[in-house]
Write a structure and sequence with these properties.
mainly alpha, 321 residues, 15 helices
Length: 321
């Protein structure tokens, strides 16, 4: 009876699948089927239902024009910023949160290297750029402010140096074989323009001019350090889960950092608010934070869709970078 019932319903439209799943589950229970089998049938229905919602959302997004998509993203970011502004009293906390999330991302990367003994899909150039801007920021923290940021920067720098040493040491052959042909954006190609921009636009404070230029270099470099990693993923077209988790954590960290600087404008005693009319530097800070957030926005969108769809990898379309 169960086989006949199943065959008669196999060609029913999708809207009747809920009845099919419910009827099949009742039949299994009456027949004395194991609970795990019943749970598996229900799980399959729930998976199909979730995927249907994801496909419906994808179809809705694809139906939007480019200006509508940009407007949707800006509206979503504005709502999140408003919530952060209302919920968090000290907006400097957002910067600490951003650094902490970045450290978690490096920890995820370390877990991947230790567990899988592979650096597949990782860009060594991005890790080098990350180590450079963290080293500069750590130096500037010691010379200019020294606070909780210094401790988090130190931990993240140590974790990044370990990742680099592993990729250049025990996993060097793995990197040269699989990643090197895709890792085409060189470190100097990103670093040199950032230094030139820092010489042109840097903080106008009482600190030594060299330290001010270094600090500006750090800000600009952090904004674009992920570009080599995005290029590697774009060339590969498929990103495995651990690497995707790492890059997504970078996206979250960048958004929190951007939120920190933007919300500073609305603080009555904010240095940034009073400095916006004193030169090019504060404007460049805001532009850098916004750029680094939107650089990762596309990837985060495909990451969320992949996670909702239950996929083990993230598939990227052409033209992401």
């Amino acid at each position: 009876f169960f086989l006949q019932e199943k065959n008669s319903l196999s060609h029913a439209p999708f809207i009747s699948r809920a009845f099919t799943a419910s009827h099949t589950t009742d039949t299994l229970r009456h027949a004395g089927a194991p609970p795990s089998r019943v749970k598996g049938k229900m799980g399959s229905y729930e998976d199909a239902k979730r995927k249907a919602h994801v496909m419906k959302f994808k179809k809705y997004i694809k139906s939007l024009s480019k200006p509508q998509k940009i407007g949707l993203i800006l509206a979503s970011c504005s709502v999140v910023l408003l919530l952060l502004y209302l919920v968090i009293d000290n907006h400097d906390t957002l910067f600490i949160m951003a650094e902490f999330v970045h450290f978690i991302g490096i920890a995820i990367l370390a877990h991947k290297l230790l567990r899988e003994k592979s650096c597949l899909g990782l860009s060594m150039q991005t890790q080098e750029l990350t180590a450079i801007f963290l080293g500069i920021r750590l130096y500037c923290s010691f010379m200019m402010e020294y606070d909780w940021h210094t401790i988090l920067d130190f931990l993240t720098l140590m974790a990044t140096m370990w990742v680099l040493s592993t990729m250049k040491g025990s996993l060097k052959h793995n990197y040269e074989t699989h990643n090197r042909p895709l890792d085409t954006v060189m470190t100097w190609q990103v670093l040199v323009p950032c230094v030139i921009m820092a010489i042109i636009a840097h903080p106008q404070t009482s600190h030594n001019v060299v330290n001010r230029v270094l600090w500006a270099t750090c800000v600009y470099l952090e904004a674009v350090s992920v570009l080599p990693q995005l290029r590697v993923m774009q060339s590969a077209k498929v990103v495995e889960r651990w690497t995707a988790n790492y890059v997504f954590s970078l996206g979250v960290a960048r958004f929190l950092s951007c939120a920190h600087w933007i919300l500073q404008i609305f603080d009555g005693q904010s240095y940034l608010k009073t400095a916006l009319t004193t030169g090019l530097w504060p404007v460049m800070v805001l532009v850098s934070e916004i750029v680094q957030t939107f650089i990762l926005a596309d990837f985060c969108y495909f990451y969320v869709l992949s996670f909702a769809d239950g996929g083990k990898v993230v598939r990227l379309p052409a033209g992401l970078v």
